[in-house]
Design brief:
The protein has helices at 2-15, 39-58, 76-81, 95-105, 109-112, 142-146, 154-166, 192-200, 220-228, 245-250, 257-270, 289-302, 319-323, 330-353, 417-421; strands at residues 29-34, 63-68, 87-89, 124-128, 130-131, 150-151, 171-175, 207-211, 235-237, 275-282, 306-311, 359-368, 371-376, 381-384, 394-402, 407-414. It is an alpha/beta fold and 423 residues long. The protein has 3 domains: 2-112, 3-Layer(aba) Sandwich (Rossmann fold), CATH 3.40.50.12160; 124-353, pyruvate-formate lyase- activating enzyme (Alpha-Beta Horseshoe); 359-421, OB fold (Dihydrolipoamide Acetyltransferase, E2P). It has a 5-stranded mixed beta barrel with strand order 12-13-14-16-15. Strands 1-2-3 form a 3-stranded parallel beta sheet, sandwiched between helices. A 3-stranded parallel beta sheet has the order 4-7-8. The structure holds iron/sulfur cluster (SF4). Iron/sulfur cluster binds at residues 133, 135-137, 140, 142-143, 177-178, 214.
Length: 423
């Protein structure tokens, strides 16, 4: 979400005549977009602000902006801590900086800025469709920083994706903290399935993904859309967060382990070849060894294609911070993360090894270390070697090597998307 926000602010600044430079020292405007979901991320932001402050002293006319989750509705404290920062902006709140830049250029920015869709996007592009979140998981700071759920109107999103497709984008990932809750705050209550049905008709667009889903909102309509719409990729990120019902309840996650597993089975029965990824927090306040073992068992049962495991980090302002003691020692959290990661690595070794010899379709996203790279519809990262220019193309590869984190393939033939879809 932060990447998408940065890109959109960048587009707005470009429309005011600014352009990106490689080094902060060469910039007239420096924007730091912050994530404070964990303490380590917040520490990084603080150290970056510290590193940038001397640049402001060197050239006082330079504008420094701090944006993102670190900035709440009130930021007097931040202003005291970081006196060199000229402007503080909450996530997706671009106006304060645009006002300042507009003033320094002597232009009315509101008259200059149109769509925030990137003007020179990559082959794949993020498109935020919901801002904020209406749930209040006890460990999470996001609703306090990004606010309550606001869905963008369906026509606005469709128009933006049409524009992106004309600019060469082949794959969009529509984003929301609870993306499957899309539309429930809009007048006619369209849902994510309605939106994806509209996006599926956009010429030139090859693939549609969505991120991140919440188990409570994953409806049959959305599952059917994933199963039936040709451009919607068969990959669902469905964070579970814990394998123990008492911990789930104290996290204020409104489902049980059994309900989550039932939903996963239903998705797997309905969507052929679907891949699943999930998030797990270990060391939540009061998590016993037994409760942690239930998360470990869940990972073993789930056999997901990706598990993002993070140690619990107490965030001031959250319910968990106010009411629960962060009592699992740091070393114990680290042990649990490591053990869970090792288990997932062995599962992925098996899943990916089974793909050797299979033919897969990938969308080529770019080059890295002399190889082309892209992703399967199930979101597996694949590399292949070729002298041809395949950027933005759908190609078929035979997988010939696998590791837990990526696959290597050999080109079978370039696919014509329209021909392959009979379109
Ligand atoms: S659903 Fe996600 S963003 Fe919303 S409160 Fe829970 S963890 Fe945070």
């Amino acid at each position: 979400m932060n990447k998408a926000d940065s890109q959109r602010l960048g587009t707005a600044l470009e429309q005011l005549g600014l352009h990106a430079v490689d080094k902060a020292a060469d910039a007239d405007v420096i924007v730091l977009n912050s994530c404070v979901v964990r303490q380590s991320a917040e520490d990084k932001v603080v150290s970056h602000v510290g590193a940038i402050q001397p640049l402001k002293k060197q050239r006082p006319g330079r504008i420094l902006a701090l944006m993102g989750c670190m900035v709440g509705p009130k930021h007097d404290d931040l202003a005291r801590r970081f006196p060199q920062v000229d402007v503080f902006m909450r996530p997706q709140e671009y106006a304060p900086l645009l006002d300042l830049v507009g003033q320094s250029l002597g232009v009315d920015w509101e008259g200059c800025i149109g769509s925030l869709a990137p003007t020179e996007p990559d082959v794949t592009c993020y498109v935020p469709i919901i801002h904020g979140c209406d749930l209040m998981c006890t460990f999470c700071i996001i609703p306090y920083r990004r606010g309550r759920q606001v869905s963008r109107p369906i026509e606005e999103v469709v128009h933006e994706v049409e524009l992106l497709a004309t600019r060469g984008v082949k794959e969009v990932t529509v984003l929301g903290q609870t993306v499957d809750a899309y539309g429930n705050d809009l007048p006619d209550r369209p849902d994510l399935a309605d939106l994806m049905t509209r996006l599926n008709d956009i010429p030139g667009l090859h693939r549609i993904r969505f991120l991140t889903s919440h188990p409570s909102f994953m409806s049959d309509r959305i599952i059917e859309a994933v199963a039936n719409l040709p451009k919607v990729c068969e990959h669902i990120n469905l964070p579970v967060q814990a394998g123990d019902d008492e911990i789930l309840s104290r996290m204020r996650r409104p489902y049980t382990r059994a309900e989550y597993l039932d939903l996963v089975n239903h998705i797997r029965d309905s969507v052929s070849g679907v891949s699943l990824s999930t998030d797990i927090i270990v060391g939540f306040p009061g998590e016993t060894e037994e409760q942690y073992q239930r998360s470990l068992d869940l990972v073993a049962d789930l056999r997901a294609d990706k598990v993002h495991c993070a140690p619990y980090s107490s965030r001031p302002g959250t319910t968990a911070h106010r009411t629960m003691e962060d009592e699992v020692p740091h070393d114990e959290k680290t042990r649990r993360v490591k053990q869970l990661d090792q288990l997932q690595e062995s599962i992925l070794t098996e899943i990916n090894s089974a793909m050797v010899g299979q033919e897969v379709e990938i969308l080529v996203e770019g080059r890295r270390k002399g190889k082309w790279q892209g992703r399967t519809r199930s979101n597996k990262l694949v590399f292949f070697q070729s002298e041809g220019d395949y950027l933005g193309e759908l190609v078929n590869l035979t997988i010939n090597r696998a590791s837990p984190w990526s696959l290597q393939g050999e080109l079978v033939s370039e696919l014509s998307y329209l021909a392959s879809r009979g379109d």
